[in-house]
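Might you be able to review the protein record set out just below?
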Amino acid sequence: WYAQGMLTMIPGPIIEPDVIFEYIMKINETFDVQMNVVDRAGDAEILRMLNMEGLDVYHAPRGYVLSNPTKKLQSLVLQQKVSYANQIFEWNCSNTQITYDWNNNIYAHKDNKNSQGKIDGVMCVIYCLGPMIDDKILDGSGSYFSIPD
């Protein structure tokens, strides 16, 4: 996937917060980014740098509060309102399992915690749908977003 230009490699054996921060800044400069959504488990240094730049940062929740965005993604996919021709996202989708609890909340997760399969792309979309639903950006018309090739 790297050879196809679908991944960006980070130089060195560890993830450097500065490299990630610069990549996020480049995305914000290139696109009309309305909000940067971050996983609460994310690197505190990157979050500090984003806040210092004055970027709007939304901390994605965990647990049952992700049920509505997960249901929304499921609905959008079934209605063919999500466009993706991306092998990595397709792989993420194939690794994602959905579980229902007794309150009809749904959870996206790996098939098993020791799995080498990744679901990061799917979780990223779910995290981003949360504030879109809260801000009533999703109004029921048209195609909402596409996952780049």
